């Protein structure tokens, strides 16, 4: 089973994406509701993939991605940035933080 960590503070988004991903029966979806937890959980849970919201409380997604990529224990985990904000420069900023 593929383990996905979804780091998202919006309950509606979590409900929608978690439900859809788990329909495949091949994905286990874990949830962290802020960037601080999103940095801690991969160390113990070792997900195969992180889906990272960018605008969150405590630690934002850019900083969380940077921390995960700076940690030797988690730097190998692919991070995909998710955001409703499609402003110019956001893609480049996410890539610079370590998102794929």
3D structure, described in words:
The chain is of the alpha/beta class and about 100 residues long. It is about 40% helix and about 20% strand. The protein is built from four helices and four strands. It has a four-stranded parallel β-sheet with strand order 2-1-3-4, with helices on both faces. The radius of gyration is 13 Å and the shape is globular. The two termini are about 20 Å apart.
Summarize the structure.
This protein has 100 residues and is α/β, with parallel strands linked by helices. The chain contains 4 helices and 4 strands, in the order E-H-E-H-E-H-E-H. Strand 3 (49-53), helix 3 and strand 4 (79-82) form a beta-alpha-beta unit.
The geometry reads as globular
**Through-space gap between termini:** 22 Å
Largest sheet: 4 strands, parallel
Radius of gyration, taken over Cα atoms and rounded to an integer in Å: 13 Å
Fraction in helix:
40-55%
| Tally of DSSP β-strands | 4
How many helices does DSSP assign? 4
Map the helices and strands.
Elements lengths: L1 E6 L3 H12 L4 E6 L2 H11 L3 E5 L7 H10 L8 E4 L7 H8 L3
Helix pairs in contact: 2-3, 3-4
Keywords:
100 residues, alpha/beta, four-stranded parallel beta sheet, 4 helices, 41% helix
């Amino acid at each position: 089973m593929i383990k996905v960590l979804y780091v998202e503070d919006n309950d509606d988004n979590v409900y929608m994406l978690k439900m859809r991903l788990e329909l495949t029966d091949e994905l286990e979806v874990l949830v962290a509701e802020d960037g601080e937890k999103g940095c801690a959980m991969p160390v113990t849970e070792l997900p195969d993939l992180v889906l990272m919201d960018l605008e969150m409380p405590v630690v934002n997604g850019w900083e969380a991605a940077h921390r995960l990529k700076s940690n030797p224990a988690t730097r190998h985990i692919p991070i995909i940035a998710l955001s409703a904000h499609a402003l110019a420069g956001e893609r480049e900023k996410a890539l610079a933080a370590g998102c794929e």
